[in-house]
Amino acid sequence: MKKILAFVVVASIIVAIIIGSLSSLDYEPTTLMKLKEKYSKKQKPKVDHSKFKELQAKFESAQEVTKACETCHNLTSAEVMESSHWNWEREEYIQGKGIVYLGKKNAINNFCIGTKGNEQSCAKCHIGLGYDEQGNIYTDSTNIDCLVCHDNSETYSKAAEKAGAPVEDLDLNLIAQSVGKPLRSNCGVCHFYGGGGNNVKHGHLESAMNEPTKEIDMHMAAEGMNLQCVDCHLTEHHEISGKLYSFASSCTNRNTCDQCHTNAPHEKDLINKHTLKVSCEACHIPIYAKENYTKLYWDWSSAGKLKNGKPYVETDSAGNQTYLSIKGNFVWGKKLKPDYVWFNGTASHYLLGDTIEEGAEDLVLNQLNGSYKDLESKIVPVKIHIAKQPYDPVNKVLIQPRLYAEKEGEGAFWKDFDWQIASKLGMEDVGLPFSGKIDFIETKMFWLVNHMVSSKEETVQCNECHTRNDSRLAGLRDFYIPGRDYSRLVDTAGSWLLLLTFLGVAGHGALRIINSRKNKEVKNG
Amino acid sequence: MAKILVEIYKPFERFWHWMQALLIFFLAFTGFEIHGFYTFFGFENAVDYHNIAAYMLIILILFAIFWHFATGEWKQYIPTLSNIKAQLDYYLFGIFKNAPHPTKKTALSKLNPLQKLTYFGLKILVIPVVVTTGLLYMFYRYPTKYGVRSLNIDSLETIAILHTIGAFLLLAFIIAHLYLITTGDTVSSNLKAMLTGKEEIDDDE
């Protein structure tokens, strides 16, 4: 009876194991599999704009195209004119400063410094078709540049130094009939060239992202998922998700990897635990500026040198400009390991007119907030851009110089190379006092690195951070990392303990051997 | 005096001893790699292996505790002050003159007073500290906004340093222990006893 019972128990356990292991083959698809399935189906456009009769009439100007767009999209202009792409400013909350309206319109950076007074040149990247005589953005909706974002023929182009107007001789009918969702090239035409050239600012948004390989960007590679910018930067009513912390301050409307991948995407629990404190980008973007150089250092103080009374350019062997009379000296870098900082999604900013504190080591223009103990903070990769830029040592404020003018003699630095006049005019443009004294001060900006995601094979490995030598996180000292950190006292004392124990037993053993020999000799002798 | 062959170490005891030896060696090796002393398995593997071995050791310890209480063998580890001096004298002087062991090994009293003291210290201090800090290390919760805030530990530093101290002490113990094995009746008699369970001891009866 007992044997039968034992047999039944054993047999039922075996059956249960077999059923269990077979049924587990019927697994749930992973998040990644679902995503791949979703994005491998390419959406077909809902309408064919080339068939609309409104777009058949011969267009003489981009404004006429906008008017034609509005005949159907008759509520869209209001959305566009509320966007930060149009207003060049956005409501933000900065701790200690309250609510501020910050954007390209009024921010100061350490590249070309600021747009005020230089709109004619800077507004090439405004989504309007030009400025009025007072330098204001037109309030007229026909001045919205629909095409710069929606041209899918990749032939539309804005003119340099025309405040946002397009070049002449465009086939506006072809362009208007091609419109669709923005392509990478539509976003890239501005976002890849910020700071006056390809890849100058971000280091991870550049022309190589138009048609990237998988090595450059896993998501956007044509041979992969071929994602467009707006596949992640989801847009509703022309409000685009995600924002740049050169202007942004509050932790709202951020674009994150979690929105697709969830916050526990790894098979290994130990790795998923890391996501509490480590951003996805920190591991999955091991290097940035993979293809082309990005600017790391900009020294305005050397600008203005002339050769035979003419401005000149110096270029290094890699083809990067290292000196420009109009801008000063540059240092460039490629295939760079990011720096790492704590970041909780909020930032504070140096605003035009803010007093520079005495003895400040380096003036950070966009301080990213965060620390290990802050519950919202994660470690994020950043590019740090350092510059020496003009400031007024008497009033202790950064100077917004007037850089651009159409002609010489209007006082713009890029034409006349005179800091005094350019600063005086520039500070007038922004309505700040100027003492007449100019000095140069080192400033720092943090640029979050969040594109150019690498394949999982290229991911940062454990021992790149968990190591005593040259840890990627060597700069973050406010917490203990296994493998990187240790108590010098304990390690020294422990090593001595081991050494002394070893010497002790070795000595003891040696004495025993010697003595046993002696004893033997005594016995034998 | 006549010698008899007596079973000093029960099969479970030997199994426990050798498993523990193996696991502690492995844990020390992987642990000091994680600590950054050298690279062998690679950090990720070292962590994985260390964690698996740690669970195995904890299970083994649980079984051992049960066994010691069920058999009453735990009493062997109660430290005693008598004969400590004699035992020290033996290791410092007597051993060089072929003097006899000051304490007699029997199945009921297989540890000498110094061993009792050392093992007692290991069992109630070093191993509990290493196991506790090890578990805290594994289940360490980063300061986080989710879950029960009061369970947060603000820093891994204290845990990690205590764990390291424990590891050094264990390693020092192992070095001394490996040597002291050779101080039995013959150089190999202690080792043989732990392998076969049996050792020749003086027959008092």
Protein architecture, described:
Chain A is of the alpha+beta class and 525 residues long. Chain A has a domain at 198-465. In chain A, 29% of the residues lie in helices and 14% in strands. Chain A is built from 17 helices and 15 strands. Chain A has helices spanning 2-23, 31-40, 62-72, 76-80, 84-87, 119-122, 146-150, 172-178, 184-191, 229-232, 258-261, 269-274, 280-284, 413-416, 419-430, 462-465, 488-524; strands at residues 90-94, 98-102, 235-236, 239-240, 294-299, 313-315, 321-324, 328-333, 339-343, 347-349, 363-364, 366-368, 378-392, 397-398, 439-448. In chain A, strands 5, 6, 7, 8, 9, 11, 13, 14 and 15 form a 9-stranded mixed β-sheet that branches. A two-stranded antiparallel ribbon of chain A has the order 1-2. In chain A, strands 3-4 form a two-stranded antiparallel sheet. In chain A, a hairpin with a 4-residue loop joins strand 13 (378-392) and strand 14 (397-398). Chain A is globular. Chain A starts with a helix and ends with a helix. By secondary structure, chain B is mainly alpha-helical. Chain B has one domain: Transmembrane di-heme cytochromes, Chain C (Fumarate Reductase Cytochrome B subunit), CATH 1.20.950.20. Chain B has a two-stranded antiparallel ribbon with strand order 1-2. In chain B, helix 1 (11-34) packs antiparallel against helix 2 (43-71) and helix 4 (113-138) packs antiparallel against helix 5 (157-180). The longest helix of chain B is centred in the N-terminal third of the chain and has 29 residues, at 43-71. Chain A binds chain B through residues 270, 273, 276-277, 372-373, 375-376, 461-463, 466-468, 479-480, 482-487, 490-491, 493-495, 497-498, 501-502, 504-505, 508-509, 511-512, 515-516, 519, and chain B through 34-36, 39, 42-44, 47-48, 91, 95-98, 137, 142-145, 154-157, 160-161, 164-165, 167-169, 171-172, 175-176, 178-180, 182.
